[in-house]
Write a structure and sequence with these properties.
twelve-stranded antiparallel beta sheet; chaperone; membrane; 3 helices; single chain; OM_lipoprot_LolB; signal
């Protein structure tokens, strides 16, 4: 779906944003304990078999629940993923809601690629998943759950660029904003769950 909405200028903007800043490459990946709640937004670039697609994202992580909204650079909705303790929901551009236990299947059908939602908040926070085999590569990248992960950070150790790569595709998230959220604002369940159906 997203591959039909490729905008060449979006690629140029994304690359320019990466080139204009001197960020620090992370080389240590401590085991995750508790991750701070956060709200983040930015731009997303995906490359599959030499084909690229680009979008904007809004991401909220609040303990047991996290949501990722994906929109085209022109603001049109591509879809939304929501994960809570009961599983994963996907909402498509027409507002139809689907659910599953696995985020990979839903993100593939909704976005056209697998988004590793299960550990994405950990890697974006500079942590590795506890209890999951891992390796720290010579260049400082984390290798875990079938992905090679590279993270660049700003002065406050906040995520600026998160690059994920496996044998099928590469995903680059460039963060414009990263803000901590108070735990008092936590929500425990996806709001769309009551209207969900099986795909």
């Amino acid at each position: 779906m997203m591959t039909r909405k490729i905008l060449p200028f979006a690629a140029a903007v994304l690359l320019a944003a990466c080139a204009q800043n001197n960020y620090t490459e992370q080389s240590e990946w401590p085991q995750a304990q508790e991750i701070d709640d956060f709200a983040a937004d930015g731009r997303l670039a995906v490359k599959i078999k030499e084909k690229g697609s680009y979008a904007n994202f809004d991401w909220r992580y609040q303990g047991q629940m996290q949501t990722v909204d994906v929109n085209t650079p022109l603001g049109n909705t591509v879809g939304k993923l929501c994960q809570d303790s009961l599983g994963v929901l996907a909402v498509d551009a027409k507002g139809r809601v689907y659910q599953a236990q696995n985020a990979a299947e839903l993100s593939s059908s909704l976005l056209g690629f697998e988004l590793p939602l299960q550990y994405l908040h950990l890697w974006a926070s500079g942590k590795r998943a506890a209890g999951e085999p891992y390796q720290i590569l010579a260049d400082g990248r984390l290798q875990q759950s079938g992905w090679n992960i590279r993270r660049s950070v700003g002065e406050q150790n906040e995520a600026k660029i998160l690059f994920l790569e496996n044998s099928k595709l590469s995903i680059r998230l460039v963060f414009d904003d990263w803000d901590k959220l108070p735990k008092s604002e936590r929500k425990m369940q996806c709001a769309e769950r009551s209207g969900a159906e099986q795909p």
